[in-house]
Design brief:
- The protein is α+β, with helices and mostly antiparallel strands.
- It has one domain: 2-Layer Sandwich (Alpha-Beta Plaits), CATH 3.30.70.1290.
- The protein is 33% helix and 26% strand.
- It has three helices and six strands, in the order βββαββαβα.
- 20% of the residues are buried.
- This is IS200/IS605 family transposase.
Length: 138
């Protein structure tokens, strides 16, 4: 459950964790149109739900997509990424035969790499200062 400040709770923890993900097509080829991106957003929402995560924001262009995902601490980002890329590649290939020409070497739509950046909360400098000030002798 989420509270008004976005804090979610698990069995033994409270958390707010977001990751900004960017996936790029193989060789940065221009692959996607609006219909592909619309369907991909729904596919990625479904995958996130399977991981008890939430796709907060999604957008993209013809050769890459951006995702903002709120995820629980029990999920490894690399595992989530592998599932997002694998499922989206497989389903898009099935649903849009016209994309087949863009699948390179072993039917890969996505580049093997990705960007993942942590997002949210106080700026790093503020968190560092807060931690430095804890348990100081008076």
């Amino acid at each position: 459950m989420a509270d008004p400040e976005g804090i979610r709770t698990g069995r033994h923890c409270a958390f707010v964790m977001h990751v900004h993900l960017v996936f790029v097509t193989k060789f940065r080829h221009k692959v996607f149109g609006d219909r592909h991106l619309s369907r991909m957003e729904q596919i990625m929402r479904d995958v996130c739900a399977d991981f008890e995560a939430e796709l907060v924001e999604f957008n993209g262009e013809d050769n890459h997509v951006h995702l903002l995902v709120n995820y629980p601490p029990k999920i490894a980002v690399a595992r989530l990424v592998n599932s997002l890329k694998g499922v989206s590649s497989r389903r898009l290939r099935q649903e849009f035969p016209d994309l087949a020409q863009h699948y390179y070497r072993a039917n890969k739509l996505w580049s093997g790499s990705y960007f993942a950046g942590s997002v949210g909360g106080a700026p790093l400098s503020i968190v560092k200062q807060y931690i430095e000030q804890q348990n100081r002798p008076v």
